TrEMBL record:
It comes from Recurvomyces mirabilis. GO terms for biological process: NADPH regeneration. GO terms for cellular component: cytoplasm. This is Gfo/Idh/MocA-like oxidoreductase N-terminal domain-containing protein. It comes from the Eukaryota. GO terms for molecular function: nucleotide binding; oxidoreductase activity.
Length: 381
């Protein structure tokens, strides 16, 4: 079943050639080290970025004797015979355009989350995937491939009746975790003026499309900040929430703190027989406090998530339950020290080699934008 942890029996000996679009933080800190560790399954063969310095820096981080080719042209990378899989890790405003180029070239495409900022761009990716034959796009929700998360989904399935769910994601500055990760990422500013202008214009267009045209909400400093925070941080939580308990029926209330300039918010989602309390925020405290907790009648299941920017930090599952003899049992399961990104890349390999449709498809990711719309309408209309 797709989503289960791979076994050695799934290894085929085939090496997947990867072209990476976007050489920013997540590429340098996460993807290149993961692919280096999985060199028996993946080989980075191409880089593309608007920053020539970022490309050169990323080249030097690739293990082995093969020096990846580089280009400013995403189209060139997508059409290169030496590329089997295109990792779209560029700015999310360009995800749809870059994914379309890769899918048109009949490549497999791994798109970092969020899929896009608007339903319109998400639908562009869905249409391009269908035109390419379907099942060729994979959205990078690594939390859903964490071993403990997969275990928790199974454990929650044994709860006869869910009474309440709590989803929490309050984190400090990622720079603290990244700076102590030993990956030594670098940032550059050698951008051409036309590239910077294109980013500003596309971001502005996306906000108008998502807020004004799709939701009927005014584009303000507050609504723009809230949509930006929710699409980045919230996409992780809401995607995982959906897999565990499904799509909500609606939002009872959403209280964003955007009016005070604080990137915090809390909401209550309505389900047929229970409610989900959701809280999210970013501050300057150097800790990572993320979890999903499901309360049943005699069992509670909690997934505890650590920062993805330090490799080897495991996700854990905590189960608290009353047994048939009325005794109380509390257990903590850490089934592996492999972090979510490594497990996700192993699933990517299975997806390509075995031809299985991933659970994190573009159609699946579109649902998160729908939930973000529910939240924004609740607060700003």
């Amino acid at each position: 079943m797709f989503g289960m942890r791979p076994t050695e029996a799934t290894v085929s000996g085939r090496v997947i050639n990867v072209g990476i679009v976007g050489c920013g933080l997540v590429t340098q800190v996460v993807h290149i080290p993961c692919l280096n560790s999985l060199s028996h399954q993946f080989q980075i063969t191409y880089f593309s970025d608007v920053s020539e310095e970022a490309v050169k820096c990323s080249q030097l981080k690739v293990a082995g004797n093969l020096r990846p080719k580089t280009t400013r042209s995403v189209e060139e990378l997508c059409n290169a015979p030496s590329v089997d899989l295109v990792l779209v890790a560029s700015h999310h405003t360009f995800h749809a355009a870059h994914a379309e180029l890769a899918l048109r070239a009949k490549k497999h495409v791994f798109i970092e989350k969020p899929i896009a900022l608007s339903l319109q761009d998400a639908d562009r990716i869905i249409a391009a995937d269908k035109a390419a034959g379907g099942g060729r796009a994979f959205i990078g929700f690594m939390r859903r491939y964490a071993a403990a998360f997969v275990d928790a989904v199974r454990e929650v399935g044994t709860i006869e009746s869910i009474h309440y769910v709590r989803v929490r994601d309050i984190i400090g500055p990622n720079s603290v975790f990244v700076g102590q990760s030993g990956t030594c990422p670098r940032t550059f500013n050698d951008y051409r003026e036309e590239d910077s202008n294109a980013l500003r214009e596309k971001t502005s267009d996306d906000m108008k499309q998502a807020l004004q045209h799709e939701l009927g909400i005014a584009v303000t400093k507050e609504t723009t900040m809230m949509w930006d925070v929710l699409s980045f941080l919230g996409a992780h939580d809401l995607s995982a929430m959906r897999e565990i308990v499904g799509m909500p029926d609606g939002v009872v209330g959403f209280s964003p703190c955007a009016t005070t300039g604080s990137p915090f918010g809390s909401a209550i989602f309505r389900y047929s027989n229970f409610a989900v309390a959701y809280e999210s925020g970013v501050d300057q405290v150097a800790r990572f406090d993320a979890s999903i907790e499901v309360f049943g009648d005699s069992k509670t299941v909690k997934v505890c998530i650590d920062t993805p920017f330090i490799r080897g930090l495991p996700t854990t599952m905590v189960v608290k339950e009353t047994l048939p003899d009325d005794s109380y049992k509390e257990s903590v399961t850490r089934s592996t020290y492999e972090d979510p990104f490594m497990l996700e890349w192993k699933e990517v390999y299975r997806w390509i080699v075995e031809g299985k449709v991933p659970k994190t498809t573009p159609q699946d990711a579109r649902c998160d934008l729908e939930i973000l719309g529910m939240l924004m309408k609740s607060a700003f209309t």
